[in-house]
């Protein structure tokens, strides 16, 4: 099962940038839940915690495409050093504001500044696309990245919860800060695997000429993000109502452990079913899994069902990443995937904000219902866009292969269709 991973990790520099990127992405798994816990513990309000987290997530989503274009245009090193300094400034300001119980508007401002982090989830994926030659290897690499993300989501929320509830409310934010700074320093030192800046300035940017398939999967990630945003804050509230708030991070970690296992298995196989069909199936299974969580009678059932639901997360996200990789050029991969992060960010913000209000008025089970609704929305959007995904990713010839190769494997660069993102 692990042979495919050994092959790609044998490339020079692969292990180094994969490990460094893992550490640098620590805020992806910890920052949101750390902010929720810090604000809830200091101000005793789930609604306020949801609002602050939502504002930060919206800013994070808004900055993703501009910073991704900047990375593609001038290179990872030149772009990410100042962006890392911006994150440090905002994170320190958020900690000082929360611990002095400052006004909510100042929390909004500082968390928003800390959310200008750059396209953290795309940096190593862009390096894989630069380093590897075949679509098969890139599928394995993206599955590995999805599994590594889940390593963070296994350890990050549990660590954040323990640090915030048992040691010091903002300690999770401090750990995010340290992880990003150290990981980014190591990653940016790996110049041998850094993709070259895009030739011709911004001329090769996707801009508003997004392929229809990228628009489709970006909308799907809105539903997935709503599922995530509602789930995090709902689990904290669910465990708190049961008198076991310290277990909330453990439950989130168990869900992520399921996603890790699902991602490793999914990436270890080369599937014969077309990509669009796999996307439909994994979205359906994810909806069933998270729907069952809303019916969990206690924390232990929530954890057990969460393990099963988690098996579907990484495969679904891997499919979304792979759709983008199939339809954009290699020098546009960071920007293309940034649109997925925008969809995810908007969904997380919406889910956290709405779930926080529902929890305040109706309890944690209403928040879990919101999480299930987010998964259901993702499924509806996948079904609605199945035709677009099929036309964009299937080969359409007599070669006997179900999927088209990415632009990097075609003889000529493929021009992107002039489709605006709101269509």
Q: Structural class of the helices, strands and pairings?
A: mainly alpha
Q: What's the SSE pattern?
A: HHHHHHHHHHHHHHHHH
* Annotation field: number of helices: 17
Beta-strand content estimate: under 5%
CATH architecture verdict: Up-down Bundle
Task: Write down the overall geometry.
Answer: globular
Mean pLDDT: 84
Q: Kindly report the name of the CATH homologous superfamily.
A: MFS general substrate transporter like domains
- CATH topology grouping: Growth Hormone, Chain: A
| Level-1 CATH class name | Mainly Alpha
Main pleated-sheet profile = none
Give the low-confidence spans. 410-423
Termini gap: 41 Å
Task: Name the helicity range.
Answer: over 70%
- Tally of distinct domains: 1
Rg measurement, Å: 20 Å
Strands, count: 0
Commentary on this structure:
With 423 residues, this protein is mostly helical. It has a single domain (3-409), classed as MFS general substrate transporter like domains (Growth Hormone, Chain: A, Up-down Bundle), CATH 1.20.1250. The protein contains 17 helices and no strands. The protein has helices at residues 3-9, 14-24, 26-43, 46-74, 76-99, 104-114, 120-131, 135-167, 171-188, 212-241, 248-268, 275-293, 299-310, 313-327, 333-362, 364-384, 386-393. Helix 11 (248-268) packs parallel to helix 13. It is globular, with a radius of gyration of 20 Å. The relative contact order is 0.16. Mean pLDDT is 84; it is low at 410-423.
């Amino acid at each position: 099962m692990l042979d495919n991973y050994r092959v790609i990790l044998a490339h020079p520099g692969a292990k180094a940038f994969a490990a460094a990127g893992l550490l640098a992405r620590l805020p992806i798994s910890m920052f949101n839940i750390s902010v929720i816990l810090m604000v809830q513990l200091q101000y005793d309000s789930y609604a306020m915690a949801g609002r602050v987290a939502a504002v930060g997530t919206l800013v994070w989503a808004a900055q993703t495409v501009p910073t991704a274009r900047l990375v593609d245009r001038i290179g990872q090193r030149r772009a990410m050093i100042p962006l890392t300094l911006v994150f440090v400034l905002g994170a320190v300001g958020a900690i000082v504001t929360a611990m002095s119980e400052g006004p909510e508007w100042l929390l909004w401002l500082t968390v928003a500044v800390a959310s200008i982090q750059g396209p953290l989830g795309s940096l190593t994926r862009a390096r894989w696309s630069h380093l590897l030659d075949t679509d098969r290897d890139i599928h394995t690499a993206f599955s590995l990245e999805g599994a590594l993300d889940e390593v963070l989501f296994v350890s990050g929320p549990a660590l954040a919860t323990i640090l915030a509830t048992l040691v010091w409310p903002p300690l999770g934010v401090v750990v995010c800060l340290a992880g990003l700074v150290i990981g980014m320093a190591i990653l940016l030192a790996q110049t041998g695997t850094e993709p070259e800046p895009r030739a011709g300035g911004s001329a090769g940017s996707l801009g508003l000429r997004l392929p229809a398939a990228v628009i489709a999967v970006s909308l799907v990630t809105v539903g997935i993000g709503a599922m995530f945003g509602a789930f995090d804050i709902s689990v904290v509230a669910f465990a708190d109502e049961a008198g076991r708030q310290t277990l909330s991070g453990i439950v989130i970690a168990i869900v992520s452990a399921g996603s890790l296992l699902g991602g490793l298995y999914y990436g270890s196989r080369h599937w014969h079913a077309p990509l669009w069909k796999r996307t439909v199936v994994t979205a359906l299974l994810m909806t069933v899994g998270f729907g069952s969580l809303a019916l969990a009678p206690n924390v232990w059932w929530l954890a057990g069902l969460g393990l099963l639901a988690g098996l579907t997360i990484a495969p679904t996200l891997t499919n979304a990443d792979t759709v983008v990789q199939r339809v954009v050029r290699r020098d546009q991969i960071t920007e293309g995937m940034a649109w997925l992060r925008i969809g995810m960010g908007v969904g997380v913000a919406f889910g956290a904000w709405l779930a926080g209000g529902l929890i305040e008025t109706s309890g944690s089970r209403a928040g879990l219902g919101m999480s299930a609704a987010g998964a259901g929305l993702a499924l509806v959007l996948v079904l609605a866009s199945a035709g677009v995904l099929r036309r964009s990713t299937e080969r359409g010839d007599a070669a006997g292969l179900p999927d088209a190769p990415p632009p990097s494997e075609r003889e000529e660069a493929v021009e992107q269709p002039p489709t605006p993102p709101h269509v």
